[in-house]
């Protein structure tokens, strides 16, 4: 999605993502990381030429002509462009990844909107078939055991290296997602990581009825607790948190980051509160045992769960049953709704979902019969002293959150008619096919193309995170304009569709090789700020504002599990679209804001389904000659 960050290597002194103490680093991990190439700085003329091309479908001819003049100026020998480019190249020589710290700061840590809806993605898992507390706790216990099993692979460095296009990927994000937490700051947040060091974390946080508990998940001999043991511990937690009239302290984490930073400092003035907050921050992850949400019909069930994962449903429901700064929070509700929400700064979706795939598989394993267990101590309840000032902060946070909850319009759907097998059978990239369907849907709704963001992985490079695939292209516009043009021959439409998908795939290849334009342009802009030169006109231009206003913010997050990731739009009048293409169906989650009269998630979902079907029909009605 739009925001992502780049974690600093654990091997060098990190500044923004801070391991709390510098423990021994996994040797195999370090040697793998060191073998990865550094992120290149693309050639300046190449980026600017591609920038102008990317503007063509989304700005007016007059705006484009003006931008061309600015580009010419920027590129003058000895001019500002050359100077900034040299600065970037110098930076690239000095840093492990020239972009990583900048990106982490600008995309996340200095981003002041609440993490809820605006930054943290959720994942909707298939509904589990339990209907009561026993089932809920047993599933939660199994899930915790599965997560600890994954943690063992990270700790022992047995996690297989991932590949994209035959190239090994940076695995750093996996080392950042456990035992970590974002901490609010007055102007900039930070992320702490307690995974390594002399005393790595051995507990998780469990939250039920807005009450937080510290649950140690390792025995004294260092082995992880078994499902049965965890289950009994969860039962104890449940039985001591039956009251539902507690202050939803976790709701503080949903607030605007500046307000939360102030409230945080106020909260931790009290010693007990500070200890409780530290325990949550240090924990390996959080398990949220949610109360059942209002029942809804089957056709909107997924959308309701997506909302529950993104924001918890509001202060009356489960939003206080979270600590949204925690990197990883699994959610298991009594009614079988399950999933997670994660704080985006340390990682992109794919590592999170890869972990989830492992955990879901683990929960399906039959349980082993075990010998009688030694009794375990009662999990520690994390206490909070609520002063009138803290109470007031909670009330304000509740109000703001409830407005956000009302404003989020989300539609999670399953497109049943076909999955990635169909475009593959047509020798078309499934991702490109879906992106072109999104272009067609948007064009049919608004009669124009818009700046479109698709995340592309930069993990082929050390500490790489993402760049942008600009899905609205000259070729996509030609295709969507032709599609409903009765004056065009079917064969021509097919050719335009194929060309548009090929162009998209070519952009994808360019992006994952580190040759896309967005991060380079961001780097040049930040270099100008760092060098204290006046902001080049290129970045003050209307075209630049249009190009950065992503009405469509999209991402493919593929998973083996039949789940879908979801996230909010990145502009007030935009859509957030995430999808998981399975072989024979596609899971989509589409979000918008109710406060924008022009957008509507269900309507976009409808147009998207129609676009996918129309594109299939077009290809099937006009088969390629076998020759
Ligand atoms: N004909 C037949 N098959 C094709 C094809 C063609 N022309 N083009 C691609 N395929 C196949 C691929 O081989 C692949 O096969 P597989 O299912 O056996 O693996 C499959 O179709 C999918 O390929 P494609 O749809 O082109 O997408 P991709 O898997 O290469 O993914 C991106 C594209 C952009 C999503 C990926 O490169 C990426 O960057 N992912 C990271 C996203 C991310 O970080 N998101 C962050 C969210 S927080």
TrEMBL record:
Q: What Enzyme Commission number(s) appear in the record?
A: 2.3.1.137, 2.3.1.7
Q: Which Pfam families match?
A: Carn_acyltransf
Where is the protein found, in the record's own terms? Endoplasmic reticulum; Mitochondrion inner membrane; Peroxisome
Keywords (alphabetical) are: Acetylation, Acyltransferase, Endoplasmic reticulum, Fatty acid metabolism, Lipid metabolism, Membrane, Mitochondrion, Mitochondrion inner membrane, Peroxisome, Transferase, Transport
- Gene Ontology terms for molecular function: acyl-CoA oxidase activity; carnitine O-acetyltransferase activity; carnitine O-octanoyltransferase activity
* Entry GO terms, CC: endoplasmic reticulum; mitochondrial inner membrane; peroxisome
Q: Which residues bind (R)-carnitine?
A: 453, 455, 466
Report the Gene3D superfamilies cross-referenced here: Chloramphenicol acetyltransferase-like domain, Choline/Carnitine o-acyltransferase, domain 2
Q: Which residues does the annotation say bind CoA? A: 420, 424-431, 457, 505, 556
Quaternary arrangement and interactors, per the entry? Monomer.
Q: To which protein family does this belong?
A: Belongs to the carnitine/choline acetyltransferase family.
Its recorded name reads: Carnitine O-acetyltransferase
Q: Which organism is it from?
A: Anolis carolinensis (Green anole)
């Amino acid at each position: 999605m739009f925001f992502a960050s780049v974690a600093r290597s654990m091997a060098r002194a990190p500044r923004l993502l801070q391991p709390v103490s510098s423990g021994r680093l996994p040797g195999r991990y370090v040697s793998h990381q060191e073998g990865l190439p550094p992120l290149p700085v693309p050639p300046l003329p190449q980026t600017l030429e591609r920038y102008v091309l990317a503007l063509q479908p989304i700005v007016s001819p007059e705006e484009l002509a003006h931008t061309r003049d600015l580009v010419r100026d920027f590129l003058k020998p000895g001019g500002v462009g050359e100077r900034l480019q040299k600065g970037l190249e110098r930076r690239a020589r000095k840093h492990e990844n020239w972009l990583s710290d900048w990106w982490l700061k600008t995309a996340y840590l200095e981003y002041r909107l609440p993490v809820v809806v605006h930054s943290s993605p959720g994942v909707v898992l298939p509904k589990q078939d339990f209907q009561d507390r026993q089932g809920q706790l047993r599933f939660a216990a199994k899930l915790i055991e599965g997560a600890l099993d994954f943690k063992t692979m990270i700790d022992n460095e047995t996690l297989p290296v991932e590949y994209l296009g035959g190239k090994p990927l940076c695995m750093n994000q996996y080392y950042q997602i456990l035992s970590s937490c974002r901490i609010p700051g007055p102007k900039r947040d930070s992320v702490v990581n307690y995974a390594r060091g002399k005393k790595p974390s051995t507990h998780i946080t469990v939250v039920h009825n807005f009450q937080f508990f510290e649950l140690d998940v390792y025995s004294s001999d260092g082995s992880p607790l078994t499902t049965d043991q965890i289950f009994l511990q969860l039962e104890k937690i449940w039985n001591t948190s039956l009251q539902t009239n507690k202050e939803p302290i976790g709701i503080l984490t949903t607030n605007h980051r500046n307000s939360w930073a102030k409230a945080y400092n106020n909260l931790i003035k009290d010693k007990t509160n500070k200890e409780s907050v530290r325990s949550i921050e240090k924990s390996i992850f959080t398990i949220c045992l949610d109360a059942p949400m209002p029942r809804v019909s089957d056709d909107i069930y997924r959308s309701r769960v997506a909302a529950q994962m993104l924001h918890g449903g509001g202060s009356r429901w489960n939003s206080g049953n979270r600590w949204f700064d925690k990197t990883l929070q699994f959610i298991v509700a009594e009614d079988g709704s399950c999933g997670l929400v994660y704080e985006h700064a340390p990682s992109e979706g794919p590592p999170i979902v890869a972990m989830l795939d492992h955990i879901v598989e683990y929960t399906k394993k039959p349980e082993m019969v075990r010998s009688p267990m030694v009794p375990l101590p009662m999990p520690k309840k994390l206490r909070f002293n609520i002063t009138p000032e803290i109470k007031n902060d909670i009330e304000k946070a509740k109000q703001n959150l409830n407005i956000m909850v009302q404003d989020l319009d989300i539609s999670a759907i399953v497109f049943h008619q076909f999955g990635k097998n169909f475009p593959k059978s047509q020798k078309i990239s499934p991702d490109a096919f879906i992106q072109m369907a999104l272009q067609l849907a948007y064009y049919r709704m608004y009669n124009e193309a818009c700046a479109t963001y698709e995340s592309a992985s930069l993990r082929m490079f050390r500490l790489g995170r993402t760049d942008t695939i600009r899905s609205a292209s000259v070729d996509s516009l030609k295709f969507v304009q032709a599609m409903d043009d009765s004056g065009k021959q079917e064969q021509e439409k097919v050719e335009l569709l194929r060309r548009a998908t090929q162009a998209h795939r070519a952009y994808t290849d360019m992006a994952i090789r580190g040759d896309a334009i967005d991060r380079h342009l961001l780097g040049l802009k930040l270099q100008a700020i760092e060098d204290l030169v006046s902001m080049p006109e290129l970045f003050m231009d209307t075209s630049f504002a249009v190009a950065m206003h992503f009405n469509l913010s999209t991402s493919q997050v593929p998973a083996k599990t039949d789940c879908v990731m979801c996230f909010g739009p990145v502009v007030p009048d935009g859509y957030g679209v995430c999808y998981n293409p399975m072989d024979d169906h596609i899971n989509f989650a589409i979000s918008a804001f109710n406060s924008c009269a022009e957008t509507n998630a269900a309507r976009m979902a409808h147009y998207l389904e129609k676009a996918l079907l129309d594109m299939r029909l077009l290809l099937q009605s006009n088969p390629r000659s076998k020759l």
